[in-house]
Amino acid sequence: MLKGSREKLGAVLIAVAGLLGVIVLFAQGAIPQDTAYHDFKDQRTIMGVPNFWNVLSNLPFLIVGAIGFYKVTISDRLKIIINFRIAYGLLFAGTALVSLGSGYYHLWPNNETLVWDRLPMTFAFMALFSIVISEYIFVDLGRRLFVPLVIVGVASVAYWHVTELRGEGDLRFYALVQFFPMLAIPIILLTFRSMFTTASGYWWLFVAYLAAKLLEHFDGEVYSLLGFISGHSLKHVAAALGVYVLMVSYQRRIGAE
Known about the structure:
membrane; zinc; metal ion binding; globular; 10 helices; Rhopdopsin 7-helix transmembrane proteins; metal-binding
C-alpha cells in the first residue's frame, strides 16, 4: 500500500505517463524503421573493419558489463537486493551483450542485424526498470514484474522484426518499451523513498542516456565539428559511462535507515 501523498502522486504520474505514451504512439499509424537510420556519417573502413569507430566504440559496454556482472555474481561487492541478484546480473549481462549485438550490427547495418542490437538493450532496460521498482516502491512488485517485463521487451523487438519482414514495419511497441521506463524512472526517483542512501547513480545514468540520444541525433554535426569521431560513436561511450557510474554508486551506497 502506498503510504504518503507524494507516493500516491508518483503512482498517478506514472499511470498518466503510460497512458499518454500509448495514446500518442497508437493514435497514429504503424511506424516503420527508416532505412536512413543505417546511414551513419562515419563509415570509414580501418584495418579492414567497416564502420570502424562505430564498431570499436562498443567495447566500453563489454568492459563495464563484464565487470558489473562479476561484481554481482562473484565478488559480492555491490550493495544490491541480494534475493533479486538475477535482475542486477541481467542489467550488466545485457550491457555486455549490447557490445556484441551493436558491434555486429555496425559491421553490416541493416534491419536484420539491428535486431541483435536492440534485443540485449531490452534486457538491460527491463532489468533496470524492475530494479528501480524493487528499490523504491515494493521489493515483491519488482520481483513479480521482472520476468513479464523481460518477456514484453523481447516481444517488442520480435514484433517489430516480424512486421518489417511482412513489409508493414511497426516500431510503436518497441518505442513504448524503451521510452516509458525512462519517463517512469525519474518520477519514481522523485516521489518514492529508496531502501538505499543515494539515487545519484540513477540520475547520472539518466543524464548519460539523454546525452547519448543527443549525440545520436547530431551524429553528422559532431563528426563535422570534431573531424575524427562521430556522434554515434560517442553515443556508445556516453551510454557505457552511465552504466559505469551506476555500478560505482551500487558499490558506494549503503542501506537507508
